[in-house]
Amino acid sequence: MASSVGGFAGSALLANLRTFRASNALTAFSEWHASTMGHRALGLKGDDLIPEEGPLVQEALRRLSPQETENRLFRFRRAYALSTTQTELAPKDQISAAEDQPYLRPLIDIVEAEIATKENFDLLTAIPEQLKRRNRSS
Predict the structure, then answer these.
(1) Of which family is this protein a member (predicted)?
(2) Cα separation of 26 and 17, whole Å?
(3) Residue ranges of domains in the chain, CATH in brackets
(4) Which long-range contacts (CB under 8 A, 24 or more apart) does 22-26 make?
């Protein structure tokens, strides 16, 4: 069945998507898109553009190191000053692709995983009989 979601058709689709995500074309497009957005010209990193609303991001921001928090605030203040004068940083001072490494997304992923673990634990209503028998001390 060609329209099958599971089985071979589904796994082939996933393999194609993984190959496409790792392709040079997508990487080149991603880099082009990031450079044309303009945030690097203002001295901002990609993770600086993540909206701060919501408990998930707030918790990740709380977990940032003091140095990274200070650097983030400096980047925001500098970008604001540049935007009010409608100027950009000199090319040598702009954030390069190598410098634009995620610093907030890894923390967001950790917080998401912790929340998922807590929700799974909260769904646990009783100890399964297998575990009771296995752990019975006699």
Answers:
(1) Belongs to the UQCRB/QCR7 family.
(2) 11
(3) 38-135 (1.10.1090.10)
(4) none
